[in-house]
C-alpha cells in the first residue's frame, strides 16, 4: 500500500500538470510577451480619417482603432490581464510594416490593404473593410473618369497599392498622364488645392475623409468608379498563429454582435449603409466557434 501512495499522487497531479502545460502552450509568441509585460503595443495612423487618426485630444480614434479596442479586450481575457497597458505607436505609410516586423508594435490598426506581396513581410487578420482606389479632383475639373485626366498630373503616395492600381488602370484604359509621387495624403491634398496636381489617387473612403479636412470641401469631388479592390485587415507579425487566432476570434465575436453596426455608424454612417461588398465581408467574418 505505501508504494501506491506516490503513484496515486502522480496520477492526481497529472491532469493539473497537463492543464498547466496546455495553458502555457496557448500563450506563445507575442501573446506570451503581452502577458509577461502586461502591455500591448498598437500601431495606428494619424492621417487615415475616418479609419485611424488623432482626435482633438491627440488620442487615437476611428473605425479601425475602435475595432482594435474590442480586439484588445478579448486578448485581455485570454492572457488573464485586465486591463492591459496599451502603448499606441504612431506610424506612417512607410513605417507601418517595419513597426510590426521589428517588434515595435504587436498589431497595426490603420487602413492597410492585405496583399500577397505584403504577406512575405507581415501577416494579416480577417478582413475589416473593403474599399477601392479613387480619384479626388477639384470640382472645376472637367470630366468624370480617368480618361478625362489624360495629359494631366495625378498625385499618389509612392509605394502604396494605390500607385500600382493607378498605373494598371492607366495602362488598361490607354491613358497617358504624369504620375506625381507624394509622401503623405496631406501633401497630396496640399498639391491638389494648390493646383500643382490635377487629381489625387487614394482609397475612396480616405479621400472623402481628406476632403472633409480641406479648406473648402465643396471645392473637391470624387470622380469615376473604383480603380481597384482594397481589402483592409489588421497587420500582425508573420508566423504568429496564436496572436492571429486571438485577433480573428475577437473580430468574429464583434461581427456577430450588435456592437458592429454601432462602430460602423459612429465612423462610417455618413457614407450610408455598408456596401454589398462590406456586408458580405462581415458575413464571412462571422466565423463559428
Features:
289 residues, alpha/beta, D-Maltodextrin-Binding Protein, domain 2, 5-stranded mixed β-sheet, 3-stranded parallel β-sheet, 10 helices, 42% helix, elongated, disordered N terminus
Would you kindly provide a written description of the structure presented here, covering whatever features stand out?
The structure is a single chain. The chain has 289 residues and is α/β, with parallel strands linked by helices. The chain folds into 2 domains: 28-131 and 230-285, 3-Layer(aba) Sandwich (D-Maltodextrin-Binding Protein, domain 2), CATH 3.40.190; 133-223, Periplasmic binding protein-like II (D-Maltodextrin-Binding Protein, domain 2, 3-Layer(aba) Sandwich), CATH 3.40.190. Helices cover 42% and strands 22% of the residues. The protein contains 10 helices and 13 strands. It has helices at 4-26, 29-37, 63-79, 96-101, 161-172, 185-194, 204-212, 241-255, 259-268, 276-285; strands spanning 39-45, 47-48, 52-54, 60-61, 85-91, 107-109, 123-131, 133-138, 153-157, 178-182, 199-203, 220-223, 230-236. The longest helix is centred in the first third of the chain and has 23 residues, at 4-26. The radius of gyration is 23 Å and the shape is elongated. It starts with a helix and ends with a helix.
